[in-house]
């Protein structure tokens, strides 16, 4: 999950991240370096609790993670760069109008703004790696001495400002076009343009996928509504009765439990558990095709059809398995019904209590829920339509995974000048 989150952050900021890397890599080849201790002053933030702030004030208040509020007093009226001291250690945030910085962060100001542009300093800091400087404690931290020792390239001030204009535009994904750069950065400018073009194409494909998903969902709902029109309603116990398959637990045997995600997100496999660890817990076999309910969260769509790969899995007494009667109804049709607004309302009414774990689906109440039972042939038609939609979504998921992998791969090749 952490890797996936990092990939999402990369993609969301891919243009400015790539532009910063390409420009600063080029600057390192062309200009002299300066230690931060020679060109900036890093100040300590000062304590200011949330209750002490005056949110009616005009000055921004910053913490290690960024902007957190307003106050009537500022520590500085000049632009500065906030640098996380504790928590989000080393994270830079640009403060264009100055403000207050609390004691979980530092703030850095250029010693001579005519030699070092403050926004350029911010972008330079985003390219530095502070990982080796972070003190690993319960709350990660970094000290000023460690920050001061880092070096940054220092081109002429006009070059700095041109780069800032370009990187500012990159942060907006060049909605107003790609600004010019000094001639020595033309290759980098073109590469960034190609990266943004690729990112734009991927976004368009992702947006198209969302549109198609919405169209498919609406199509299924329309088809469902058409086949239940004038259909008779029957209690669940008559068309899909509860079937229990008790397991005789053996102490030295392992059992593989099945889980059900809420909101109709399907099943998942839990780690194996020994018979000894189960103790007196009752478990039941779940078979492929079972319409399965997690009684604790059925009210929020914890309903699933057990898949072939779920064969041999077990569930506790909190998992109810219903089996559709042959030639009467289909589990897939009932599954769809219980995820409609009407179906979820029925499960909610059958799950008395408060919120969360206090809302438990009653067995008798489930058996009495009235469900639509259109002609079996119509259900089969709807089932085949569901299968086709599932296949389309499966292919879309494969495409989406390939797209997500494409950007890091392309960036790697671009930075290696292989594209």
Helix content: 40-55%
- Terminal Cα span: 30 Å
- How many domains make up the coordinates? 3
Strand content: 15-25%
- Reported by name, the CATH topology of the largest domain is Adenine-n6-DNA-methyltransferase TaqI, Chain A, domain 2
CATH architecture of the largest domain: Alpha-Beta Complex
Overall mean pLDDT score?
Answer: 91
- Give the strand tally: 18
Q: What gross morphology would you assign?
A: elongated
* Text of the CATH class of the largest domain: Alpha Beta
Q: Please, what is the CATH homologous superfamily of the largest domain?
A: DNA methylase specificity domains
Cα gyration radius (Å)? 30 Å
Widest β-sheet, arrangement of strands:
2-8-5-6
Essential attributes:
419 residues, alpha+beta, Adenine-n6-DNA-methyltransferase TaqI, Chain A, domain 2, 3 domains, 4-stranded antiparallel β-sheet, 13 helices, 18 strands, elongated
């Amino acid at each position: 999950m952490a890797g996936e989150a990092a990939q999402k952050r990369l993609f969301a900021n891919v243009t400015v991240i790539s532009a910063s890397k390409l420009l600063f890599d080029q600057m390192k080849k062309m200009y002299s370096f300066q230690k931060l201790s020679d060109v900036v002053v890093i100040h300590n933030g000062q304590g200011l609790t949330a209750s002490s702030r005056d949110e009616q004030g005009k000055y921004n208040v910053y913490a290690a993670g960024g902007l957190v509020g307003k106050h009537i007093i500022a520590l500085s009226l000049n632009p500065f760069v906030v640098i996380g001291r504790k928590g989000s250690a080393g994270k830079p945030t640009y403060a264009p109008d100055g403000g207050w910085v609390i004691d979980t962060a530092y703030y850095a100001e250029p010693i001579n703004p005519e030699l070092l542009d403050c926004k350029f300093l911010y972008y330079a800091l985003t390219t530095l790696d502070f990982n080796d400087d972070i003190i690993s404690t319960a709350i990660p931290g970094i000290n000023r001495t460690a920050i001061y020792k880092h070096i940054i390239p220092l081109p002429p001030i006009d070059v700095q400002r041109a780069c800032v204009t370009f990187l500012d535009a990159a942060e907006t994904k060049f909605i107003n076009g790609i600004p010019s750069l000094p001639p020595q950065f033309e290759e980098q400018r073109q590469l960034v343009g190609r990266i943004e073009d690729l990112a734009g194409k991927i976004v368009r494909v992702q947006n198209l996928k969302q549109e198609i998903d919405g169209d498919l969902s609406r199509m299924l709902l329309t088809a469902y509504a058409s086949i239940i029109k004038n259909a008779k309603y029957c209690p669940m116990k008559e068309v899909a009765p509860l079937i229990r398959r008790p397991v005789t637990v053996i102490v030295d045997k392992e059992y593989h439990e099945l889980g059900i995600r809420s909101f109709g997100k399907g099943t998942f496999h839990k780690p194996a558990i020994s018979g000894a660890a189960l103790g007196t817990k009752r478990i039941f076999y779940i078979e492929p095709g079972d319409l399965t309910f997690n009684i604790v969260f059925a009210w929020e769509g914890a309903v699933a059809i057990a898949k072939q790969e779920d064969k041999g899995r077990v569930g506790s007494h909190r998992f109810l398995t219903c089996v559709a009667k042959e030639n009467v109804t289909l589990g897939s049709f009932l599954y769809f019904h219980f995820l409609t607004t009407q179906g979820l309302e029925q499960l909610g009414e059958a799950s008395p209590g408060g919120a969360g774990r206090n809302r438990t689906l009653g067995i008798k109440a489930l058996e009495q829920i009235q469900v639509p039972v259109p002609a079996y042939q119509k259900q089969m038609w709807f089932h085949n339509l569901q299968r086709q939609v599932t296949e389309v979504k499966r292919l879309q998921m494969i495409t989406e995974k390939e797209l997500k992998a494409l950007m890091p791969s392309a960036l790697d090749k671009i930075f290696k000048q292989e594209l």
